[in-house]
Amino acid sequence: MTHLVQPLESGHAILVVPCYNEASRLDLGAIARGIADNPRVAFIFVDDGSTDATAAVLEELCNDPLGRLRWKKLARNCGKAEAVRQGVLAALELRPAMVGYWDADFSTPLDVVGDYLALLDRDPRLLAVFGSRVRRLGAEVERKPLRHYAGRIFATVASMVLGIGVYDTQCGAKLFRVTDAVANAFAEPFSSRWIFDVELLARLRREVAPQPLAPLLLEYPLPRWRDVAGSKLTLWHGIAAFGDLWRIARKYR
Fold first, then answer.
1. Among the listed residues 84, 113, 62, 79, the one whose alpha carbon sits nearest the alpha carbon of residue 182
2. pTM of the complete model
């Protein structure tokens, strides 16, 4: 089931928000502020086969005559990677100038979307802007120590696999300029349900070759980010991620 309307005006962006059992966590106030503060941005929420009241919440939320809030329901739980991919494919049908994805807990606040748009507007060579959770003076990055250090280890290994120096592959706040390379990168299902961000980078590198990928991407140090309770990730997911990384390395190198 997909609830979509007419194509967007030129220059607009669509953010895909994957949702699995998020009925009690969706911050409707944050969404309302995100809509008000970002007139160029529309949202597609993807219900990834939720077993709670997520579908009902999204149906009420997306009763939007302006068409800036839309939703898509998957028949079964497919995992974050496929939920994001299905949302991006639906977004591309509306011919936006930019498309991205954002975690449903809004750990990355929506008020930085304008910064992403400005960066892509300013430099037409940029293919994408990625959020980067850099703990530094002047930033409010609240991350649990264990997740921070595990993330640093994973990002280091992922950088070695990709051959690209990436500080934070897994931040769930990314925005892409819509190009053939980006559309092709989302065309096929990902190998991993969770660390698809790494595979996406590998696909983009393949699509732009022989041009190097690194100069086309920008990691944006987030001014604010916070851990939100209720994450679906477990210790097992963290362990399995390294197996997925090995398979991605074999497939794309």
1. 84
2. 0.89
CATH of domain 2-252: 3.90.550.10
Please give the average per-residue pLDDT across 106-115, as a whole number.
Answer: 95
Residues 21, 50 contacting (CB under 8 angstroms):
yes
Model confidence at 241, in pLDDT bands (50, 70, 90)? confident
Which helix (H) or strand (E) segment holds residue 225: the answer is: strand 224-226
The pLDDT, as a whole number, for residue 5 is 40
Q: Where are the domains of the chain?
A: 2-252
One-character DSSP codes across 27-76: -HHHHHHHHHH-TTEEEEEEEES-SSSHHHHHHHHT--TTS-EEEEEESS
CA–CA dist 209, 199 (Å, integer): 15
CB 204 within 8 A of CB 181: yes
